[in-house]
Amino acid sequence: MNKYVLPLGLLLAVAAISSSAEKEKKKESEPERMARAAMKKHYLQMTDKQLITKAWMNIVERNGRKQTRHMWRMSETNKKDEERYVVVFDSPPAIRHTAVLLLEHRGRDDDTWVYLPAIRKTMRISGTNLRQSWAGTEFSYKDLKRESVSANRYVLVKTEKQAGQAVKAPAAKKSPTGKKGRPKSMPTDLLVIDAFPVTKQEKAEQGYSRRRLWIRSDNYLATRIEYYNKRNKLLKTLVASDLRHVGKTGKVRAYKSTMTNRKGRRTEVRFEEIHINEGDIDDRIFTRRYIERSR
Amino acid sequence: MTRPLRFLWIALLLLGSLTSSGATAERRPAAAFRPAADVKNAAQAWTRAQALESSRKGTERARLLAALPYYLAVLARTGADGKRHPKAPEAAVRAAEIIEQECRGKELLAAKYYLIAAFLRPGWNVWQRAEKAHLQAGKRKQLATQLKKLSARASGLAKAFANKATADARQQAERLRTFSREVSARAEDLSAERPVPPPPPARKIPSETQPKPEPAPEPPADPITKPPPELGERSPPGPAGEMPFELPGSKPRLSGWLRLRDNTYLHRHPHVAADDIKEVLLNAELAVPLGKHTAFVSGEANAQYAASDSEEDAELLEAYLDLHAGDWDLRLGQQVFSWGSGKLFNPTDNLGPWRSVDPLDPQRRGLPAALIRYSHGPFSIEGIYMPAFERTELPKLGQRFFIYYPDTLENPLPGGDALTVNFIDEDYSAEPGGLFESNQQAVRLRASVGTWDVALSYFRGYENIALTAGRITDLDLANETVDLEARYFFPRQSVYGLDLSGWLGKLGLHMEVAFFDIDDTGEDVGIGDQDYTAYVVGAEWSIEDLIGEHDLQLSLEYAGEIKDDEDDRIYINRIYMDALLFRLQYTVDYRLSFEVRGAVNLDNESSHTHLEARYRWSDNWVATLGVDLLDGPEDTFFGAYDSNDRLVATVRFSF
Questions:
Q1: Predicted pLDDT of residue B60
Q2: Which of A10, A48, A180, B526 is the most exposed place for a label (fewest CB within 10 A)?
Q3: B222 pLDDT above the threshold of 80
Q4: Which residue has the higher pLDDT, B173 or A24?
């Protein structure tokens, strides 16, 4: 009997140690917990049941030459938290009526189609290669998706005080007093958070080793995001500005976003209109049929 | 106890009995449907419900069922002032949605929660969602009674608002009055003995553009005050919504492009003198929206200038009316069809004719047709009727790309030299003609299965690229010449197609197979009217940032045929019997890119290669400089054109 006691005791001790180590591993530090909480709020801020936008997009080369796109986008998030969107390009003429349809799926690759009016065909494009450039811009397909909070580890690095981008009232041109000009800026706390992809899929989709996000503590909007490559070198930087409340939803959006890569090429997106939760969008819009008749 | 509250308690009791009896599939202990003890008030219950629903743990069903008791708690609990939480209406709707989705057979219970939400916030059109379940359960009269009460409540609130002085309150009152009238009218319909008319249409953002409507009524702020939305909360779907701005295409718009092209041929042609051909091509289209329907017209004008002569031509490409109703589309008029997922070659694409005067730069042509399509989710089926046949326009005798083959024929006299062939005429008398007599039909079924797109197709019509048979019209043995007339045939055929495309990781894959069941022409067209199967399998791949920020895209296809017999004729409708097709694009940046594309026929070692540099001045102006190289034995398609190597320069302006 005694000969079993020692090995059994050792086994139990090892099991207890490994179990506590595992618990220790799973337990988040305070900066991680705070960062995750902030990112969850950021996720909720950026999640809309319906979103309809109209925007100008400038792709500006280092030498200053720019190409301009005009587009509108309709998106909807369903009860399974899957997003689907349609983007139709209106300008320039060479790509007019080109349309993109994306249907996000949980547990499998997204479905993405592009309708090319020049050849009158709809092409399915890769649902896994989310690292590729979106419509020739500095944004990747992954950059345009919402944050995958459970697939990243977040660490609160520091907090900063920002002189403040004030959040404008919905499409406000004038202050309530009738005076022109920007609303009064208030200093804002910014949470500087490092995000590291942890799941295999997220790593493959992002292609970044790390992102550093500046999250406003009042509305949890990211005003700046830096993207780092696998060698931890800065790849590109997103700056969001012109923050405004959208309609009566209480949501805040950046009406201007600029993504600049390390070589100086940048993509500026200027939203003309943003509409959130203004009514159900017809299901038939998120179909190949709709993008094929967008011309 | 007020009526809505009584409803609430009945509903809670019903739900309690439902959970404790284990009637639903969830089979959870009843305790799991009670809020946790640390949830003291409605506000905490609301926060907990939202957190549970948006968490990523567990299945969607588990998350929803976990959130449900908290939504009910929001409804049931009142604050110290005796008022319910401002989120109570949203909680009722969410509870109803969860019950509707997750508890089969409890639609009536869900409907009652919709009614509770409507009572809590008059002006909100959620009451419409309660109707179907009531009608199915035969509770029409009960619903009518509830709606009358809802109407009365809205009317009472409207009066209260009307007494206030502010403009907002008066506006609110007006909206509530409208709402009350709508609900009352519906209640009348339901209480009458006549058949129930369809409910008022749900106001949704239409897929078609429509005039901008008046703003939707908003729920009243009093007595249930709508709080400022909390950060991150998901607002419920608005009571009404229309497209908030005009979509592109909601106004008539003219667009198109102009292309100037210069073809400089590098070799003297044995039959044609023109070595430099300039071409102007104008393509224009006009789309005119007609409510939710569209009229569309497009056309092309072409002018070619050679040293000795010129040729102008204009053609209507498309002129159709697009009509939409629900899941149905109808397109009537001249239209262009483009089938198949192959990037470089499409054996299933047999419907429409082409303008192939320059076979290296063919243009699609339209033909009159009626298309009807039914679409539902990822599935669609379409039927096409084309009342009259139109052939593909091929190079004419005297043009560079007319196939002057064979050059010589065997001399029937023993020991004589080969006879030189003179092509003197073309005979199109066998072309199918006549409206309805030469009709064609097609059906296509498309679906998305997982990450793959599948299409099955059937076409019954004519081969639109002619089969050729030579007829000797004069034989001059003294001068060793023979005059030949090209006779063209368009056999009737049935084509059964299968088309598959999808992605495996970063590799795009596609496959098209078409079986051609061809009617016998009774003419000497070689294997041209024998049945065969054409197929293409292909892959595409792209590498981003290959060198610096340069991108590379590669498409590769193999096209082959399965057939019983073979011969060594040239079939201009079947160029790729055993061929490798390729396209490689190297993009330096938005402005500059290079492309190599072409085909190599493996069985006869003939090939076409096109090399091109493309420069984009601006979004509207693009210039290209390219070269076409054709090579192969003279009895092959590309070999017959080997005197047509050329430099091609184009400038294109889009508007």
A1: 74
A2: A180
A3: no
A4: B173
B655 contacts A282? CB cut-off 8 A: no
Total length of chain B:
655
H runs (alpha helix) in chain A: 2-26, 30-46, 200-206, 288-292
User: Per-residue pLDDT for A214 more than 60?
Assistant: yes
Strands across the sheet containing B467-476: B408-409, B419-427, B481-489, B467-476
Task: Please report which confidence band the pLDDT of residue B239 belongs to, taking 50, 70 and 90 as the band edges.
Answer: very low
Residues of B in contact with A127 (CB under 8 A): 451, 503
Rounded distance, CA A124 to CA B607, Å? 29
The answer to whether residue B569 scores a pLDDT higher than 80 is yes
Nearest-CB residue to A250 (from B230, B329, B450): B230
Separation of alpha carbons A40 and A147, rounded Å: 9
A99, with CB counted inside 10 A (0-12, 13-18, 19+), is: buried
d(CA B653, CA B330): 33
C-alpha distance from A44 to closest chain B C-alpha (Å)? 4
Tokens at residue A58, please? 């400038």
Question: What's the CA gap between B626 and B649, in Å, rounded?
Answer: 6
Q: CB of B375 within 8 A of CB of A287?
A: yes
- Which residue of B216, B257, B451 is in closest CB contact with A109? B451
pLDDT tens digits, B319-360: 999 999 989 999 999 999 999 999 999 999 999 999 998 999
Residue in B with minimal Cα distance to A136: B590
Distance of CA B573 to the CA centre of its chain: 28
Most confident of B163-177, B411-425, B601-615: B601-615
- Mutate which of A280, A283, A290, A292 to test chain B, going by most B C-beta atoms within 10 A? A280
Average pLDDT over residues A59-64: 86
Q: Do residues A140 and A166 lie in contact, with contact meaning Cβ atoms separated by under 8 Å?
A: no
CA distance A238 to A257: 7
Compute the nearest-CA separation of B140 from chain A (Å): 27
Compute the distance between CA of residue B632 and CA of residue B624 in angstroms, rounded to an integer.
26
pLDDT of A5: 55
- The string of DSSP letters for B329-391 reads EEEEEEE-----S-SS--TT--SS-EE-SSTTS-EE--EEEEEEEEEETTEEEEEEEESS--P
Distance CA(B552)–CA(B541), nearest Å, equals 8
Q: Looking at the predicted structure, is the pLDDT value of residue B69 above 60?
A: yes
Q: Alpha-carbon distance B53 to B66, whole Å?
A: 8
ipTM strictly over 0.95? no
Chain A residue numbers touching B257 (CB-CB < 8 A): 93-94
- Is A81 in contact with B230 (Cβ distance < 8 A)? no
CA distance B502 to B511: 9
Cis peptide leading into residue B215 (ω within 30°): no
Q: Are B456 and B383 in contact (CB under 8 A)?
A: no
Distance CA A270, CA A240 (A): 10
Q: With 90 as the cut, is the pLDDT of residue A222 above it?
A: yes
CB pairs under 8 A between A and B: 186
> Greater confidence, B12 or B267?
B267
Using 50, 70 and 90 to split pLDDT, how confident is the model at A8? low
B279-313: b or e for each residue (b if 16 or more CB lie within 10 Å)?
bebebbbebebeeeebbbbbbbebebbbeeeeeee
What's residue B631's pLDDT?
A: 94
Residue B383's DSSP bridge partners are B372, B443
- Contact state of B294 with A293 under an 8 Å Cβ cutoff: yes
Q: Are B54 and B67 in contact (CB under 8 A)?
A: no
- pLDDT score of B219 more than 60: no
Query: How do strand B492-504 and strand A50-60 relate by DSSP bridges?
Result: unpaired
